[in-house]
Fold these 2 entries.
Entry 1:
Amino acid sequence: MINKNQKTYTFHVNGMHCNACIVLTESELTDVLEVIKAKSSLAKHSVEVTGDFGDKEPEHIARYLSEVLKPHGYTLSLGKQKHAVKWSDFNLALPIAGGFIALFIILQKLGIVNLVNTSEVSYDTAFVIGLVASVSTCMAVVGGLVLSMSANFAKEGDRIRPQVLFHVGRLVSFFILGGVIGALGSAFQLGSTGTFILSFIIALVLLILGINLLDVFPWAKKLQPTMPSFIGKRVYGLKNVNHTLTPLLVGVATFFLPCGFTQSMQIYALTTGSFLTGALIMGVFALGTLPVLSLLSFSSLGIHKKAQSGVFFKATGLVVLFFGIFNLINSLVAVGIIPPLFSF
């Protein structure tokens, strides 16, 4: 039966960075009692909300729904706000990113890690990319899943077990499914050309991610590849299923969430043509995301809530650009298009 009081409102969404934001905003808004449907657009930075809000004015509705989204770093407004780059953030972001990059180059020189390899992504690189991914906006949707699921189980006094099952499910599934992707790669028998193309795609994905994290060029958000949004919505919906094995299933399902970092590692796993190598790459990547996600789930840490989040995301974006540029250079060196440019 159609409710004649239902109306559709369009709000501007402040704080959207990537395709994961679409899943997160839509899922959180549709959980609101008065909301029937929500449809977000990254290109327009907007959301269409259909529901019955009685006699509330649009301004009131925007403030009301903003309270739901604020924990995830979003707010709603009636008018589109002009995009303004906070260049002062780079005053701190540049030295932070520079220090991070310099540290790992030094460790590379000392032989402690193999951050950059002329032909392949090393396990060290996969772990570091996992660390970077865990504090990016792409992982906000995973953090939202963890906190929402935890809240459901906490009502019944079950706080620790769901967290452990979630992280176990995530680590095990990334290892096994990464192996499956690697094995599939062997079936395609990728030659040097195919490997170069996929390596080039990995570099482009990382470059787009880095540019989007800098939040300097809004148009770049349209370039970011992602899985179909309905997959992310189905995964996110699992948080409301209060079953003993739900945390385990949610952990497994995060493998399919729209995160560019995960997708770049999945593409690389495909190029390995090996179950074991693909499994280790994805497993180590998931292990890299574990420290921050564990802090988030056990202490309610929210990186995106911090006052310096602008600085933080810009620093992260610069580090991701570093990975993207090096992957791009290395893929060109590997096929002999350009000579080696660096000695590390």
Entry 2:
Amino acid sequence: MMFTCHLKKYRLQKDLTQEQLAELVGVRRETIMRLEAGKYNPSLKLAMDIARVVQAPIEDIFVFEE
């Protein structure tokens, strides 16, 4: 399964740094960094929290393909 993350695009549209987004969703900046690099699959809760903050659908931010 292939995982693609478009988080950086949506984070930048909201003019948020990785650190600011991390604080808003209750994780460390390194977690946001790893998500944006496609090296970490988020939990459903984290994905939902991020989607709410950046105001974008989860399926547009995190794409899982076979």
